[in-house]
């Protein structure tokens, strides 16, 4: 009974936290983009923005593409 309850809770958490709107941006640095500094691309939502090397953006830019 306890195992079944644990599996149910785990399934609900996976469903709720797995939604695209609940994910945080995961920034990847692209130095080959040919801009001053670097171009940052989000692996979760696809947003991109220029920025300084080694310093990823601090907020999600979903919907704002540069």
Give the SSE map.
Blueprint: H1 2-17, E1 27-30, E2 38-42, E3 48-51
Helix content: 10-25%
SSE succession:
HEEE
The major pleated sheet works out as: 3 strands, antiparallel
How many runs of DSSP E, i.e. beta strands? 3
Compute the number of helices.
1
Question: What would you call the shape?
Answer: rod-shaped
End-to-end Cα distance: 52 Å
Low-pLDDT residue spans: none
Mean pLDDT: 79
Largest sheet, spatial ordering of strands:
1-2-3
What is the structural class?
alpha+beta
User: How much of the sequence is in beta strands?
Assistant: 15-25%
Rg, rounded, reads: 17 Å
Write a structural description.
There is one protein chain. By secondary structure, the protein is α+β, with helices and mostly antiparallel strands. Strands 1-2-3 form a three-stranded antiparallel beta sheet, with no helix packed on it. It contains one helix and three strands, in the order H-E-E-E.
For this entry, give a set of tags.
alpha+beta; 66 residues; 24% helix; 1 helix
Short description:
24% of the residues lie in helices and 20% in strands.
């Amino acid at each position: 009974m306890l195992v079944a309850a644990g599996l149910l809770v785990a399934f609900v958490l996976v469903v709720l936290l797995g939604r695209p709107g609940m994910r945080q941006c995961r920034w990847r640095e692209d130095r080959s983009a040919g801009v001053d500094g670097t171009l940052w691309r989000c692996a979760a939502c696809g947003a991109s923005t220029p920025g300084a090397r080694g310093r990823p953006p601090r907020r999600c830019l979903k919907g704002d593409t540069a």
